[in-house]
C-alpha cells in the first residue's frame, strides 16, 4: 500500500463514565477499498467510529483522518421529518454551494440510490431499506473521501441488505475509503478486503479478510469468529 | 331557565355588536400573547434542551413549575410593575389591551418553553449526534431540531392559547374590565353573571367555547394535513 492511510489511530485511549472503552488502540485504514471493523459487542467499534469522526475526543493518543470529507451513516438512520430531498440537502448546508449546485447534487445522489422519483416524499414514511439508502445518498452527496458505516444493514431484510451492499461497493469502487462496522460476517467477506478485529478496545488482529475470517491467529479473534462466549475475554480485560 | 336559554339564543342570533367587540378583543389579546409566547418560549425551550450550562436543571424545574403559574399572581406582579409609581409606569400600559397581552404572554411563555424543551430534547437524543457529524453549526442544529418537531409545537401553541383565552385573573387585574376597552370574554362573563344578566353571560360563554373549538379545529386540521405529508 503506497498511498498514505486515510485513517491513522496511534495509541488512542478513551474512558466513558469511568469505564475504559478504547485501550491504546492503534491501526491504519488504507485510502482505498473497504475495511471492516469487527469484534464482539462492547469491544469499542462504534466508539472508534465516533472518535474517527470527531464526535468523541480521546483521552490520549493521536487520531489523523483525511484529507477530504468524512461521512457517517449511523445504525439508526437519522432522518428529519421532511422530504427525502431536504434530508440530503441538509448535509450540504455547510458546503456553501450555489442553489443550483446543491439541487443538482441532491438529485444525483438520490438517483444513485434509486430514490430520485421519491425526492418529494416524506423520508420518515420510507421503509427501513429505503431509509438506509437515503442515508447513503446523503453521505454520497458529500462526496466523501471516507465513509464510516455503523452496522448499516442491522435491521434490514436480505433483499434490502443486498441493495445497500451493492451501493457501498459502488462507492468504494468510485474511490471512497469505507470503514464498515458489521456483525454480519458474510457481509464482511463480501464487501471488505481488510479486517481489523477489536477486542476490549484494542486491535488484536488485522489483515486481509480472506485470511483472518477462515484462520484467525489470536485467541480473541478466534473466540469472536467462532462464536465462543466473547464476553468472558473482555470482561476479564476491563 | 327556559327563558334565559331563549334569550341566549336570541342574543346569539342577533350577535349584538358588544359581543362581537368583546370576542374580537379576547381573540386578539390571546393570539398576540401566544405569538409572543412562541417567539420567546421556543428558543428558550430549545436552548435549555440542547445547551449544557450551570443551573440548567434549576431552570428546567422553574420552567416546569411556571407552567402552573397562577394568573392572578402574574396580574398582581405586572400591576405593580406597570402602575404609575412602578418601574415600568412610564409606559402607560396599565388598563390597556397591551398590559393584558403582556400578562398572558408571561403565562404562555413558560408553558411553550417547557413543552418545547421536552420535544426538542427527545429529538436531540436521536438526531443530535448525526447533525454534529454533518458539521452543522450549533444554531443551525437547533433550527433543524425545532423544524423536526414542528408538529408537536402546534400542540404547545394550542395549550398556550387555551391557557391564555380562558384565564381571568391576569386580564382582570391589569386590564380592569373597562367596558369597550379592556373587557374580554372571561371578565364579561364573570361580570354579567354577578349582575344577573345570565342570558348575556351564557351567550358570551357559547361564543367563547366556539372560539376555542374553532382555533383548535383549525390547528388540528393544519397539523393533520402537514403530518400526513411529513409525519
Could you characterize what this model shows?
Chain B: InterPro entries: ABC_perm_TupB-like, MetI-like, MetI-like_sf. Chain B: Its main location: membrane. The complex is a heterodimer of chains A (238) and B (231). With 238 residues, chain A is α/β, with parallel strands linked by helices. Chain A has a domain at 1-68 and 148-157 and 181-238: Rossmann fold (3-Layer(aba) Sandwich), CATH 3.40.50.300. Chain A has helices at residues 45-52, 84-92, 99-112, 128-141, 158-173, 185-191, 209-212, 219-225, 231-237, and strands at 7-16, 19-29, 34-38, 60-65, 70-73, 146-150, 177-181, 194-199, 202-208. A six-stranded mixed sheet of chain A has the order 5-6-7-3-8-9, sandwiched between helices. With 231 residues, chain B is mostly helical. Chain B has one domain (19-188): MetI-like fold (Orthogonal Bundle), CATH 1.10.3720.10. Chain B is 81% helix and 0% strand. The N and C termini of chain B lie far apart (48 Å). The chains are: A alpha/beta (238), B mainly alpha (231).
> Major sheet of chain A, described briefly?
6 strands, mixed
What portion of the residues of chain B fall into strands of 2 or more residues?
under 5%
What string, H for helix and E for strand, traces the elements of chain A in order?
Answer: EEEHEEHHHEHEHEEHHH
Poorly predicted parts of chain B: none
Find the biggest chain interface.
A-B, 18 and 21 residues
Broad CATH class of the domain at 1-68 and 148-157 and 181-238 in chain A: Alpha Beta
- What's the CATH topology label of the domain at 1-68 and 148-157 and 181-238 in chain A? Rossmann fold
- Overall pLDDT of chain B: 91
Question: What is the fold-level CATH name, i.e. the topology of chain B?
Answer: MetI-like fold
Number of strands of chain A: 9
List the total number of helices of chain B: 10
Radius of gyration of chain B: 20 Å
Subcellular location (chain B): Cell membrane
Membrane topology (chain B): Multi-pass membrane protein
Main location (chain B): membrane
InterPro entries (chain B): ABC_perm_TupB-like, MetI-like, MetI-like_sf
